[in-house]
Amino acid sequence: MPQALNEVISLSSRTLGSGAARLEVSEMGFGVMGMTYHRGVVGDTAQMIRLLHEARSFGCTYFDTAEIYGPYTNEALLGEAFGSRSDVLIATKFGHKIVNGQACYGGLDSTPAAIRRSCEGSLRRLKRETIDLYYQHRADPNVPAEEVAGTVKDLIAEGKVRAFGLSEVSADYIRRAHAVLPITAVQCEYHLMWRRPEQTIFPTLKELGIGFVAYSPLNRGYLSGCMNADTRFSKQNDIRSTLPRFTPQALALNYPIIQLLKRFADAHGITVAQTHLAWILHKAPNIVPIPGTTKESHMAEDFRAAKVRIDPADWDTLEREAGEIQIYGDRYSGVEKAQAG
After folding, report:
1. DSSP-assigned beta bridge partners for residue 31
2. 283 vs 36, 192, 289, CA distance in Å?
């Protein structure tokens, strides 16, 4: 039986952050967003809750959501699944403007009053007294990093938040916020088709002792090897239908990286998705990828990547060959591109 395909799933732990800001989580987390938002047909609630419980039984303790996912429905799903269970760590996010339950496209609001309103709403939907890790989802150009960090610092003092995180921000923004309140983790998209964080923020994170959470570690499913130029995405509830990297042309032009991953996977007796997730885990001990899915078989496949053991020289070869492949299409467009780090 190929390596990692028959391994019993039991995730180990990793530490995000350092000092008083440290947070111990499972080595792989679970990105909940696609269960209710931006990934096509919304799954049956009872089935999604069963899947979340299955993730926990595999040793996953870290679950990632945001108030904007829905809006609100994703947090409500997690609240229904876990409530105040102490063996589950919930990360959620604030910062997008929501009016009358509707997202305001491109709107940001990280004023102290908005953060406090978001926190109270998230706690209510999550059915918890404390948010374990509270991220600013995107930097608000109208609110200084110091003011955002100061507000979250007050929420921590009040027992409503346990740890502070940032998402898609610059190294300078990280330093400014960290000077007010130690940051536990910074979240950003990261995979072999988007390695920019290695240059822009990884040195700062290492210097300051901050963890890194890799969202979309399979590039929204593409790096699982299950898509091609004929793949189509729902215009109703799938953000991939609007992203330049998921046009039929880009899906075809980027296929060489899938071919590279498949050759590597076949040589080591694992799957394409496991190859990529294992590569991320190999990069540094402070990195936690958070793949998401609505299928139990995919979740089991993803989590088994934590059992993969490959010679570092082989990883170096994979990185070098991947770096020689041209990537087509931006990961975001329009306002989303401008707001991403």
Report:
1. 64
2. 30, 11, 11
In the annotation, is 69 catalytic? Answer: yes
User: CA of 56: how far to CAs of 10, 25, 126, 182, 219, in Å?
Assistant: 10, 12, 16, 28, 23
The conformation of residue 84, written as its DSSP 8-state character, comes to T
- Whether 299 and 52 have beta carbons less than 8 Å apart is answered as no
Beta-strand ranges (E) seen in 153-300 are: 164-167, 185-189, 211-215, 287-289
Superfamily covering domain 13-339: NADP-dependent oxidoreductase domain (3.20.20.100)
pLDDT band at 203 (very low <50, low <70, confident <90, very high): very high
pTM of the model: 0.95
Mean pLDDT of the residues in the chain: 94
Tokens at 74, concatenated: 């994703």
* Identified catalytic residue from 37, 62, 69, 215: 69
pLDDT, greater one: 101 or 3: 101
CA distances from 272 to 180, 281, 282, 306 (A): 42, 15, 15, 14
